[in-house]
Amino acid sequence: MAKIAKSVLAATALACVAFSGCNKKDASAASNSEGKVLNICVWNEEFQDRFKTYFEAKGLIPEGVKVNWLLTPNLDNAYQNKLDELLLSQENASPDEKIDIFLVEADYAKKYVDSGLVLDVKGDIGLTDADLSKQYKYTQDVMTDSNGVLRGVSWQACPGGFIYRRSIAKAVIGTDDPAKVQKALDNWDLFDSVAAKAKGKGYSMLSGFDDAFRVFTDNAKTPYVVDGKINIDPMVKRWIDQTKLYTDKGYNNKANLWSAESFQGAHKDGNVFGYFGPAWFIDFCLAPATLDDEKKPAEIGNGSYGDWAFCKGPQGFCWGGTWLCAAKGSDNIKLVHDIMYQLTCDKETLKAIATEKGDFANNKVAMKEVAAGDYKNPFLGGQNHISLFLDSAKSISKDNMTAYDQGISEKLQKAFSDYFNGYVDEQKAWDNFYTSVIELYPNLKK
Q1: pLDDT tens-digit profile of 224-244?
Q2: Are 43 and 108 in contact (CB under 8 A)?
Q3: Cβ-count burial of 423 within 10 angstroms (0-12 exposed, 13-18 middle, 19+ buried)?
């Protein structure tokens, strides 16, 4: 949690994301008094692309309005630090400098939801229950404050699964058919058994320490913090035990998530059986990493592109997500409403985002139609994997989220990386973990 947020906003247990405005009728009436600069805070270009393709290109930006992108990378918490600074200065900012929309991720969404700095999606922005009715409930649960008020919406839902290398699956299991591979990996005992077989044939089941982390933690039954105490769910301990086993037996390559070493396993000559991830990980992260030549088309023959497929894996889970929030003090309520509606509620837009951008979009009807249609993902060898995401999405619940999730997860992964590498024993890893968490959140106790 950013220092500025801790000192000024800690009492609110800064949470989720949200935005607000006026109802549709009021928004139309107020259009003439809207601001002329729309300020949007982002950390990368993903939402810019969605906005420009499905909103700006359709001529939906009012004449005379300038869209100003305030991009601050996520590295070292820079985005949250800058966002906190801007939101806390919002009241005294000039009209053209006021933040209108900002984005948040699932890991720190709860930091903002009860902060008082984001608008009510229904009461302020004007989206209706009917508008929002086709969205996945858990995406709204993430952004609902302690009073039951929705504070943010997303164009994507992020159920995850196991993205595996077809050629390696054939070598280890004898088939690359998603249904048959799923049967072989349907629970963790089966998954471990295949990992042993993969090792015997010279392959690593996973790339490293953090690959399965989100699967286990997203299936935890209890939150990280209970009554001010740090709480470790049995599923977290199971991740530790499995990862230590995989490391000691050579079932992984000892890589850390997002490292070059992790993605090397996906290269044409890589040895990694598969990666856990949602739709955004497939197309935005893994697919580019499989290419031998990034300057050439993403197609079969360029690296391992196309030699991949998708199945649910041992457990359904959710990883990530990006939510749009309307900042309190925005002077572009109608425009914010229109953006939120077009990009998170309009069925045809969400179908297009799914088929053209690879997202699993946040509309149940749209995704069922895509799953039943002729959509084919070229990276996955032409597989229409959306129906498998539909299955995974059924098991998702976000009842255990806290404002501390990002920090605790990061400290947990860092402390136990030393244990997996053999630098410290398990007890020392736990000691280091608790010390680092309490340094970050002094209000918590072991």
Answers
A1: 999 999 999 999 999 999 999
A2: no
A3: exposed
